[in-house]
Design a protein that fits this description.
62% strand, 11 strands, nine-stranded antiparallel beta sheet
């Protein structure tokens, strides 16, 4: 089955955003890297690692956490200014984290 990009406004609500942290509530489990993050509250921390390396640490309030390597991107549609969100990719019945788009029109895309 062909992968489909999904904006899950109904499945996700961005609750708070600070310069290096975003808090979200997921209504369905998602896969980040190889880790399944359960439905519920989770935080996404933007980390500036060694050199120019950027990673996102996605941590569930239930315990599971995953770190993924990302590239900085610009939201050309500028939709995120009004509605910051994550973008998920559906493969079969599994939703995979793909992007985090922020209110300033920037974001991060998983490699």
């Amino acid at each position: 089955m062909k992968s489909i990009l999904l904006l899950l406004a109904a499945a996700l609500v961005l609750c708070a955003q600070t310069p290096n942290m975003v808090t979200v509530h997921l209504t369905t489990p998602i896969v980040v890297g190889e880790t399944t993050i359960p439905a519920g509250d989770c935080s996404i921390q933007i980390r500036h690692d060694a050199g120019d390396t950027l990673t996102l640490l996605v941590r569930s309030a239930e315990g599971p956490a995953a770190t993924i390597l990302v590239n900085r991107i610009t939201d050309d549609s500028m939709d995120s200014i009004y509605n910051p969100h994550i973008v998920l990719r559906r493969t079969g019945n599994v939703l995979h984290f793909q992007k985090l788009l922020l209110a300033d029109g920037t974001g991060f895309e998983a490699l």
